Amino acid sequence: MNKIVFTTFFIFMVLLISPLAYADRGVFPIIDADVYGPGQKAIIAWNGEIERLILSTDLYSDREVKALEVIPFPSKPKVEAGSFSVFEVIQRLMKEKAPRAPIEKTVFEIVFHEKIGAHDVTIVKAENKEELINFMFNYVSEFNVSRSLFIRGETVLEDYLNRGFYYWVFDLIDLNFEAGSVEPLVYEFQSPYLYYPMKISSLAEGSTKITLYLITSQPITKNDLPAKMNLAKYFPFNQSIQFQLSKEELNEIDEKFSNLFASFNNEFQPWLTVVKYEGELNDLDFDLEIFKTQIQCRSIKVATDKNQYKLGEKINITVNFTHLMPGCFEIQILHFHLVNLEIYDSADRLIQSWSWNVNNDIYRVVSWKPEEAGNYTIKAASFWNGEKLEVEDKLTINVSNLTKPALTFNLKIFIYGAITFIMGAIIGFEAAYLFFKRKKKIEEPKNL
């Protein structure tokens, strides 16, 4: 069995919000031979800041070859040995949580052909294509490799570098013509989004099946995935393989997964979602990148009973602050929420204010009597630890001065029109009266 040199980028993420990801590898053949990636299996955990990836890939060649497999990372990863047992736990949980009906098995079975032995891992930081290719060429120079074999992958490597992927992992493993599952490695790294490199695998040839087990804080939907990826289904129900994990089940899969979610409350249960890609490797023209969705977990509303008031009239203002919306959770550290209520005049000058420090929902009604007529803006807002704005709401009211009533333009027009009409009617009536009176006097002598 010959040695194969390859770089693997593997991500295991448990996603805070509900993302899924795959870690993919690019394979450079060390001799002119076809290299296949018939199957990849990964568990990905991401908490919004740190990603933990457990990856196992099936690789084989049409002959015994040397090959360089490359995986890019957005930040420097920590690497440690993994275990196949995590996939066995996932498989058992999928069967246990399958729809309650007589079915013999789920769609996806985790089958490992062969356990490959020790890994020889090297992590490299390279910020330009020439540095990276020179390292790769030197790394396999003992195998009398032609530099021309790296030309095909230059475009893909440059694409990752242009997107800021400067960390590359190289792993020396055994590979032959019999497909086998590469013993898992665990990668942990900083990432603001759930990430699994797919495009790098387009450097290999053949067809593949990629199965990713995503553990996230929110369920993953089809809209979260690239167009060529799909949610895995239970057969024959056409139901997505997706369910929540208890703290015990999460710990059974991997104890360090539990650490990723340690800041959540005791009732929190992350979601496990299974996603897949089946097709040609040269069709992998995308990476899986799922960004954290912005969930509004707090709410504040300010209200008055009407928006028009008379000067001297008391105004009742209601503030309703919801600390946590349904489905939300909060990190368990000491903190408070400052709720402010403020009134500003039309010149944006602060007229009156109230504030409360809270750690739960509040409902407050305060009274205020304006001293001057005009327009006023009432604002309510909450601040994390009194500093970071969380949510806000505002409304505008009008206070009028009734001691000097001001006629509106439309009212003035109406009054002027009414006066004109009445005067016209009086003049018309008087003219008609005089006309008929004169006519009567003219007709009287004729009657005589």
Give an account of the 3D structure.
This protein is of the alpha+beta class. It has three domains: 3-291, Baculovirus p35, CATH 2.60.250; 299-400, Immunoglobulin-like (Sandwich); 410-448. Helix content is 19%, strand content 38%. The chain contains six helices and 27 strands. Strands 2, 4, 5, 7, 10, 11, 13, 14, 17 and 18 form a ten-stranded mixed beta sheet that branches. The longest helix is centred in the C-terminal third of the chain and has 39 residues, at 409-447.
Beta-strand content bin:
35-45%
Number of strands: 27
- Mean pLDDT over the residues: 75
Q: What is the C-alpha radius of gyration, as a whole number of Å?
A: 37 Å
Report a brief summary of the structure.
This protein is an alpha+beta fold.
Write the layout of secondary structure elements.
Layout: E1 3-6, E2 14-15, E3 26-29, E4 35-46, E5 50-61, E6 67-73, E7 78-81, H1 85-96, E8 120-125, H2 129-139, H3 154-162, E9 167-174, E10 180-181, E11 185-190, E12 193-196, E13 207-216, E14 230-231, E15 233-234, E16 239-240, E17 242-244, H4 247-253, H5 255-260, E18 271-280, E19 288-291, E20 299-304, E21 308-310, E22 315-322, E23 337-345, E24 350-358, E25 362-368, E26 374-384, E27 388-400, H6 409-447
Parallel strand pairs: 2-13, 4-13, 21-27
Antiparallel strand pairs: 1-9, 3-6, 4-5, 5-10, 5-11, 6-9, 7-11, 8-9, 12-19, 13-18, 14-18, 15-16, 17-18, 20-22, 22-25, 23-24, 23-26, 26-27
